[in-house]
Amino acid sequence: MVDAAVRRLGLWTSCLAQLSVVLDVSVVNIALPSVQAELGLGRVAASWVAMAYGLGFAGVLLVGARLADVVGTARMLAWGAGAFALAGTIGGLATEGWVLVLARAAQGLAAAVVSPATFTLLTVTHAEGPGRTRAIAIWTGVGLAGGGLGNVVSGVLTDLISWRLTLLINLPIGAVVVVAAAVLHRRSVDERRGGRIGLAGAGLATGAFTGAAYALSSAGDPAAGMLPAVAGGGACVLLALLVVQQRRSRHPLVPSALLRDRTIVAGNVATALTASCFQMGLWFFLTYRMQTQLGYTPIQAGMAFVPLIVATLAVNLWVAPRLMSRYAPRILVVAGAAIAVPGLVWFALVTRGPFAVSFLVPSVVIGIGGGLLNTPLATVVTTGVRAGHAGAASGLMNTSKQFGGAAGLAAASTATAAYGTDRAAFVLMTLALVAASAVVAGTPRRGAAPTSVAAGHLR
């Protein structure tokens, strides 16, 4: 039985590590012009500072997640957090553009180990029930708010001190996570592990998802030429080979039991659809709108996200867990989407005006809806998963998030370019949330048996 001290340490270690990973998705966005000017980077090279992280992160998520099951969750978290902090430090001290790009790619690879391990740590230290729901709510809140917080931190540090601190802050955070994870490892959090990772499957998965991530990230960029199409085609071939290989493998990256579960599959589809809005698109297009259309400075743009962050966290931490004790997760997902959709429609219709009209009201509405739906959705994709598959389930969820976010951003960017306005982006996000709620509404209800079995495995 996991004692209370270990549960608390596991929760806050998971949240701190997840915060650093999510922050680094967005923390360089506002800093990019300063990075470009100081290091003398061209437009393409500057875009790779952001893209390299996403490619490394998305490319090896399934492999990184499975390592938590095979090697041990806390142990992999310690190694991953250490590597993440070291790579961030190298990037923060870089004097050449290529060094920064390689450091960001290394950060992405480490993040692919850290992020799924943080969620797995919650599932192995918290049995199913109110305690796990509360832990997932806090972890999800950190992830949701991290994107906007990254913009706030980036704007403040870049304007007042230096863009380099946006990466160097990973060193103290990483040190704390490494020490905490080492303590958890000694407290036997890693006692359940099993299986191994086949090199063929790992290689095919890495190639397929890296190619797909590049194709999605660079879609619509004229400078990329035919490379996105080539990468996308290669990713499809590798993905087909991966499916064949995994069916024959004795040690698949995603256990067949997860793929046969209709609720988990539907939950991951819905996760990808909601991620197309909340993972990247919302933050990207709002940041761009504020700085290019509304004339906000980096600090003003960052601070404008505070109401959205506060609304998301408040609902996610205090409202959603209480409602989950009374209502099924799928009901709350549908309700959250129904609340967030009017906010997205508002952004599609209103592009200018006073701050309260053009940004404050719709962002708070979206924050309330997002805060309500994300914790129940994370619960849907993990309920009934036994301890030996916790890492794989977490990896599947994180992969859905990353590729849903990348696909959503690519589609919204293409639509924006085609129509000449970001209104199209918010329309697509609206449609994605409506589709996500429809998918979740059609999932079968869980019985009591899977929950009790899973709880037994997690004691």
UniProtKB/TrEMBL annotation:
- Entries under PROSITE patterns matching the protein: MFS
Q: Which residues form the Major facilitator superfamily (MFS) profile domain?
A: 10-447
What keywords were assigned to this record?
Cell membrane, Membrane, Transmembrane, Transmembrane helix, Transport
Pfam families associated with the record: MFS_1
Whether Transport counts among this entry's keywords is yes
Q: Where in the cell is it found?
A: Cell membrane
Give the main location.
membrane
Membrane topology of the entry? Multi-pass membrane protein
Transmembrane feature ranges: 9-32, 44-64, 76-95, 101-124, 136-157, 163-185, 197-217, 223-244, 265-286, 298-319, 331-349, 355-381, 425-443
Q: What is this protein called?
A: MFS transporter
Species per Swiss-Prot/TrEMBL record: Prauserella alba
Organism ancestry: Bacteria, Bacillati, Actinomycetota, Actinomycetes, Pseudonocardiales
